[in-house]
Every structure is written in structure tokens, then in C-alpha cells.
């Protein structure tokens, strides 16, 4: 009986000693030394060894060094830029040499990151692109169908890559650089291009893009070419369809309600809307247009072209 009492008392004292209830920096007692109690530094912990002067265990990279595989000196691979510092018309060789493998991987990644906005069939009708509970749009600028001619046929792959890496439309589509590794960005583009070619056999794997227009004399013909080369067709239709911005059809001379009151579309307003688009935002359209970099001749040519669109 006495022996049982002694063991019971010992057990009670041991339990109480193990539940001290106060904070301490002392290590807990481990009868068996194992990986949990080995001497090692841990990330985000203070340096208790006195080894580092700043008292931090996690060390910054040595100045002037680059982690293996993170040099980023291949601009085509990392940024989608060619030797002329322009968006590349071509896929990296490694992507093309393993095309089917990249398409399969890209389909999986597209389903995770792109489907919510661009839809499972690339038609721009994803869940996020729908209407909010109040009946208004969830996004300032609706995501486009990736089967549109301006994207499938006219947009070079480097520009599509830039959209993933850097975002577009003033953050309406944010950068996915932190979520999607470089290899997966190219894989997604391989899948998108594969689907575009399936839907329209005339779509090329590597579109040549829209030719750069050099304007020496202002003309409506030059303006028509600039309409594509400057990307105006991404937001302004010429057939009356409403997309991101007002249609150019019948625009000249029309009265528009804007954030600064009613205005008549003339040379002065057209110039202002291109160079300072936030000055007067047309009612019913989002403030999504950034200031454009154009020359006086280019601006005059665009104005002459818009005037022809009756």
C-alpha cells in the first residue's frame, strides 16, 4: 500500500512539473535526443548562438551573387523579348521541342489560373467575368475571348507572355509572375495557341504580328494601319459593337456625355482623349485607357481614319 502511494505521489509531481504553465526560453526536457532537439538554426528565428552580429538566423544572399538558375539572362525565356528588344514572335526553342508535353501541362495550369476569367473554352466567359450580385460587372474591363482575331492572329506570343508576367489594362488583369513560374507561363501559351489553331486552322503557331507603321504624311490609310498596330482595335470597334471603349463608327461629330459634361468629338477632343484619356471619361465606360505615345502625324492620321467611319 505504501509503495503504491509513493508511485502515485511521484506520478502527480511529475505531471505538475511537466505543466509549469509559464513561458520560458529553456528547452523542454527530452529524454531521447532526436531531430527536434538538435543544434541548428531555423528560418525566421533569432540567432541564439551569437554567431551573427545582427541577431538573425536567416541570412541575406551574399552581395553580388545570384542563386543557381536565377540569373535571368535569357530575355526571350524570362521576359518574352527578342534580340531587338521587342515582344518575340517566336516561342523559345525548348518549348517547341516539347510541344505536346507543354500543351498538356499548359492545359492543367490554364484550368487553375486562367479559366476563372477567360473561361474553360477561352471565350472570355469565366465565372469572374460574370455579373456581381448587384447586377454590375465584377471586372472593370471584361476579359476578352482568346479566339478573337486580334489575339489569335495578330498578337505575337511575346506580348501574350507579357500579359501573364506584367499584367494588362492598368491592373484589371494583374501580374501572375509570383503565382506562375516561367516554364508554366510558356506552357499555358502553348495550350492557348493549340486551342486557337484547333478552332481556326488559319491561325499560325507563331503569328507574325502587325507590321510597324511609319507615317511620313498624315492620311486616313495610315490611320487604318495604325488602328491595328497601336492596338486601338483592342478597345474600340469600327462596326458599332460596344467593347471596352466607345466604337469609332459614327464617332466624329457626335455628342458624348463625359465625366466633365457633354462634349462634341472634334480634333481637340480626339487629341485630348488619346493623350490624356482620364480628363473626360465617357459615361458608361470604365477609366481603363492609359495615355498613348503617338506622334503628331500618327494622331492626325488616326483622326482622319475615324472621320471616315460613318
Q: What is the CATH class name of the domain at 75-199?
A: Mainly Alpha
Name the overall outline: elongated
Order of helices and strands: HHHHHHHHHEEHH
- Low-pLDDT residue spans: none
Compute the number of strand runs: 2
- Tally of helical runs: 11
Proportion in β-strands: under 5%
Biggest β-sheet description? 2 strands, antiparallel
Q: Examine the coordinates and then state which fold CATH places here, giving the name of the CATH topology of the domain at 75-199.
A: Cytochrome Bc1 Complex, Chain D, domain 2
Helix content: 25-40%
Q: Any guess at the CATH architecture of the domain at 75-199?
A: Orthogonal Bundle
**In angstroms, what separates the terminal alpha carbons?**
109 Å
Oligomeric state of shown chains: single chain
Walk me through this protein's architecture:
With 310 residues, this protein is an all-alpha fold. Among the domains are: 75-199, Cytochrome c-like domain (Cytochrome Bc1 Complex, Chain D, domain 2); 220-308, Cytochrome c-like domain (Cytochrome Bc1 Complex, Chain D, domain 2). Helices cover 35% and strands 3% of the residues. The protein is built from 11 helices and 2 strands. It has helices spanning 2-18, 75-79, 93-97, 99-113, 115-118, 149-152, 157-166, 182-199, 220-229, 267-275, 296-308, and strands at residues 255-258, 261-264. Strands 1-2 form a two-stranded antiparallel sheet. α4 crosses α8 (182-199), α7 (157-166) packs across α8 and α9 (220-229) packs across α11. The longest helix has 18 residues, at 182-199. It is elongated, with a radius of gyration of 30 Å. The termini are far apart.
